[in-house]
Write a structure and sequence with these properties.
67 residues; mainly alpha; 434 Repressor (Amino-terminal Domain); two-stranded antiparallel ribbon; 5 helices
């Protein structure tokens, strides 16, 4: 699943550790989500979106790669 977390994080001058602390997860989880190796749970996706004052759909691209 594609996402805009890395770009949003950098635009807001947050490190991966900063974002992880704000959403109560680990830096490794943020790295994995940014790299597309891990799909965030709905509660975590919501927390990440809230940090940036965006909707989940604005942060994560839920369209399948087959479309």
């Amino acid at each position: 699943m594609k996402n805009k977390i890395k770009d949003l994080r950098k635009a807001n001058k947050l490190t991966q550790a900063d974002l992880a602390g704000l959403v109560d997860t680990t830096r490794q989880t943020i790295i994995s989500i940014e790299n597309g190796k891990y799909i965030a749970s709905l509660p975590l996706a919501y927390k990440i979106a809230r940090v940036f004052n965006l909707s989940i759909e604005e942060v994560f691209d839920f369209t399948s790669e087959e479309e």
